[in-house]
């Protein structure tokens, strides 16, 4: 409706007056609806606070924000149209004055000197002071309305977020990034809106000084806006503090969970390990893997100390309030004991594997044993020939030579084995 009113390029005085009356009527209707708008915003905030469904609350918040922006645009459009009409009226009045002045000069050319002097006196006289003061007051009221609406809309949108039910629920996991970003956006806008509030306050003071009791409504509106701003800033500071503390809590429990998982992983690994191998190579693999697990778990010691420090700081911040242990229920003492026990069991496993590896015979001893076993197999094969086969002298003579060679070899291997065993034991 406001957009349908032609507010520019108006030349006819009657048309200008009619347009100005229509805009004034709409402005009066809009001002009459302002308390209803405030009540709607308050009811919407109560509704947002009571809604538990995050998705529904987000949609309601978006609709409220969209409606507030439409209200702001309507107010600005109305004020802009009134300014254009007033400007058209001023231009039209000026042109008529110039035409009247030109005609008067033409007529006074044939009049007496007294009439010319009177005309000059009329032309040089200043415009009425009262009319100019009314225009100034109107501009001040218009400026106040714009600043008031902007600050009011900002606080309405901000309170819808700051009074979200999410701030009443503490959490140990999940993410508050979306909520954090919204509050930070409100805080970034605050300095600019505070400047607008100061401008509105100064404008209200100027109007009170110029209009007196006629500006009581402006003074009352400015006072209420300042009181609401003070409460809004307290609420914003409280939410920023809540977000900072909640961020620390989430960081603590994230580190606590990671550390617990690391200790449990080492404990489970230790439970499924096979006994020490009897061969050097697989035993070395077992030892190397155990050393890696010991090093990994030992590196958690700084995190364990940090967890204990963080938990103390979180509880100290809530000192004087309700028992923080009801929420911060992480049992650091039990966790540290579990960590110490698993680390000690890993180190005991490492020592056991090292001792077994050191007790295994060296490689040269194993080679000697293998050689001896091969020789024994050969001897057994030669001695397994049945004695009934010895029926001829040449065969008997050959068998005797073979036995003598075996005896000689046996004596040699016995001496070598004794030396190897002595060297191994030493």
From TrEMBL:
Q: What keywords would UniProt list here?
A: Coiled coil
Keyword presence, Ubl conjugation? no
Among Pfam families, the record links this protein to: Spectrin (PF00435)
Transmembrane segments in this chain: where?
A: none
Coiled-coil spans are: 297-324
**Keyword Hydrolase attributed:** no
InterPro entries in UniProt: Spectrin/alpha-actinin, Spectrin_repeat
Name the record gives this protein: Uncharacterized protein
């Amino acid at each position: 409706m406001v957009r349908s009113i032609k507010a520019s390029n108006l030349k006819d005085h009657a048309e200008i007056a009619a347009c100005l009356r229509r805009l004034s009527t709409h402005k009066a209707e809009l001002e009459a609806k302002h308390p209803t708008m405030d009540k709607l915003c308050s009811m919407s905030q109560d509704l947002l606070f009571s809604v538990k469904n995050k998705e529904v609350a987000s949609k309601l918040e978006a609709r409220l924000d969209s409606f507030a922006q439409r209200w702001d645009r309507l107010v600005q459009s109305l004020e802009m149209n009134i300014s254009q009409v007033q400007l058209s009226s001023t231009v039209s009045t000026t042109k008529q004055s110039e035409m009247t002045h030109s005609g008067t000069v033409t007529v006074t050319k044939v009049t007496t000197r007294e009439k010319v002097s009177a005309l000059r006196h009329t032309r040089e006289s200043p415009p009425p002071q009262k009319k100019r003061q009314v225009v100034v007051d109107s501009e001040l009221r218009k400026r106040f309305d714009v600043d008031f609406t902007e600050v009011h809309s900002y606080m309405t949108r901000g309170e819808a977020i700051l009074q979200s039910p999410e701030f009443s629920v503490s959490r140990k996991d999940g993410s508050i990034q979306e909520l954090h970003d919204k509050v930070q956006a409100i805080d970034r806008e605050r300095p600019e809106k505070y400047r607008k509030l100061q401008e509105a306050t100064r404008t209200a003071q100027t109007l009170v000084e110029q209009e007196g009791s006629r500006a009581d409504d402006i003074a009352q509106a400015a006072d209420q806006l300042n009181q609401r701003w003070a409460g809004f800033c307290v609420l914003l500071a409280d939410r920023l503090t809540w977000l900072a503390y909640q961020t620390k809590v989430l960081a603590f429990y994230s580190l606590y969970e990671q550390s617990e998982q690391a200790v449990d992983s080492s404990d489970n690994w230790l439970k499924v390990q096979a006994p020490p191998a009897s061969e050097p190579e697989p035993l070395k693999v077992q030892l190397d893997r155990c050393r890696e697990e010991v090093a990994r778990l030992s590196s958690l010691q700084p995190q364990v100390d940090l967890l204990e420090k963080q938990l103390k700081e979180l509880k100290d911040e809530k000192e004087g309030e309700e028992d923080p242990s009801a929420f911060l229920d992480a049992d650091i003492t039990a966790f540290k004991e579990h960590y110490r026990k698993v680390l000690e069991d890993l180190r005991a496993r490492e020592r056991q594997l090292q001792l077994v590896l050191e007790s295994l015979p060296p490689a040269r001893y194993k080679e000697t044993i293998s050689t001896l076993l091969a020789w024994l197999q050969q001897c057994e094969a030669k001695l397994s020939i049945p004695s009934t086969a010895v029926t001829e002298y040449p065969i008997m003579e050959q068998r005797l030579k073979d036995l003598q060679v075996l005896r000689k070899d046996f004596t040699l291997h016995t001496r070598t084995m004794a030396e190897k065993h002595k060297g191994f034991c030493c």
